[in-house]
Write a structure and sequence with these properties.
mainly beta, four-stranded antiparallel β-sheet, 4 strands, elongated
């Protein structure tokens, strides 16, 4: 993509996945650790991690503090940036 003239990056969220601490695919599975502590924060907290040596993944915490729930933003349809 080309740089946006106003420096913004945006897009439509087109794919998500929801996880809680009881799902073995969740970073919250197995309880709170240093790496996944943001998953146990209050709803709206952003949890970003680097995976496979090339991708950043972003989760938005969706449950009450201490409950390890989040929605992974899997795909965006780019609009600008």
């Amino acid at each position: 993509m080309h740089d946006s003239p106003n420096g913004r990056t945006s897009g439509y969220i087109v794919e998500t996945e929801a996880y809680d601490m009881h799902d073995p695919a969740s970073h919250a599975y197995g309880g709170m650790k240093i790496r996944n502590a943001p998953m146990f924060d209050e709803a709206g907290t952003i949890y970003v991690y680097f995976t496979y040596g090339m991708h950043y993944c972003m989760n938005i915490v969706a449950g009450p503090k201490g409950n390890g729930q989040a929605v992974l933003l899997r795909a965006l349809e780019p609009l600008e940036g």
